Amino acid sequence: MNRRITALLAALLTVVAWPSMARAANSAAAAPAPLLAADLRQDCEQHKSEAEQPRGWARSRFEQCHRLDQKINLYAVGTNEYKGFIQYDLWVLARSNDGDRTVTFEIRLENAGIASQLNADLGYVSLDFAGCNTLNVSCNGATTYRSDKIENWFHHPEFATIVATSPNNVGAGAYHTVDLLAQMSLFVEYRDGITIPYSNPTAVINASRFDSAGAPLGGKFHGAVFTDFVPTLELDARQGSNHRSEARHVLDALQRPRLTFPSVVGKSVPGAAGSNRPLHRLMPKSYRDQNHDGAVSICTEVWGPEYPAGGLQCDEYPFQSTYEGSSTSTGGNPRQWHGSARPIDGAENGAGGTLLGNFYGAQRLIDTGDPAVSGSYGDAFYVKVLT
Q: Is residue 322 helix, strand or coil?
């Protein structure tokens, strides 16, 4: 009986053991160095399920993280006999800049370990960062590739700080946009010649965009964003809000479309936070004017030409500055619009417009689409009304 218990304990310890480097005894050597934003790392922990996906978790248009806390089980070639494991914690914290065309990636592979029954000298993890040094993008970093033993990763978890840069005023379209799709591959192996390696060519995928949009974004002429993050505009319908009338109008459009005009059978208004139907920024003035004119025609038809009396203005949702506006979304037929036009207080309408404009600038939302091309849109966003 004692021998059985001893054998069972030994088997359990084999499963959970760490390499001879004694993880606890070397905690100082493996401790994380200061990262781009300590609070981003903490928030990333709270969003682990999203962060462990290949595209990671974006906290904002300017902050994104990836985290893979993995235990790779190793098996023999041919027999599939279990041999042990290699374990690690991969972090990628990324920051894009609102003010210049740079994206910074700080990458670490922490807490590397190997099962005690395996020879630590034969355990390797390889990381390869790709996507840089393409057209209009270059990367400055100590390395973009490292293949090393488990023990070396444990004592020196820093992979690299990589800064991707795109020159100002180069790229496609009026706003000189350049897309970067950065990818990191993982290769885990036990180099005994008879163990199946683990490979993940797209362990990390990070999509960013550089632009030189200039004055339309409020003075920050150049910048970069993470395009996987879709921001949300918050409107305030509560007492004391300086744009309450507009917020209440948007709330009706989203939640009570039957109370809005034009009357369209089965009206379904896009843009609500939590849906899969965002709005998209529209920038050419001629198209924005067409959207506004379409909304004014509805206000005039329903409330009469005298509706502006008393300082009222024709408000519209979706906004005239979106592809979902009254004309661009209907092929020039506003009476079929899945939206709403309504006279509201002019001052509150103006305050809401200022809020929207500031939101566009703060989130670097630009128009990369073409209104004349179906399915071609600008940057996406959602709307949430506080009540």
A: strand
CA atoms of 56 and 93, how far apart (whole Å): 10
CA atoms of 258 and 237, how far apart (whole Å) = 19
Tens-digit pLDDT profile for residues 128-145: 999 987 889 999 876 899
Bridge partners of 236? 386
Cβ-based neighbour number of residue 325 at 10 Å? 28
Burial environment of residue 267 by CB neighbours within 10 A (0 to 12, 13 to 18, 19 or more): middle
> What are the pLDDT digits (tens) for 154-199?
999 999 999 999 999 999 999 999 999 999 999 999 999 999 999 9
Q: Shortest CA distance to 369 belongs to which of 222, 101, 177, 225?
A: 177
Beta bridge partners of 73: 85
Q: Spell out the alpha helix ranges (H) of the chain.
A: 2-16, 27-30, 38-46, 48-51, 150-155, 244-255, 285-303, 346-362
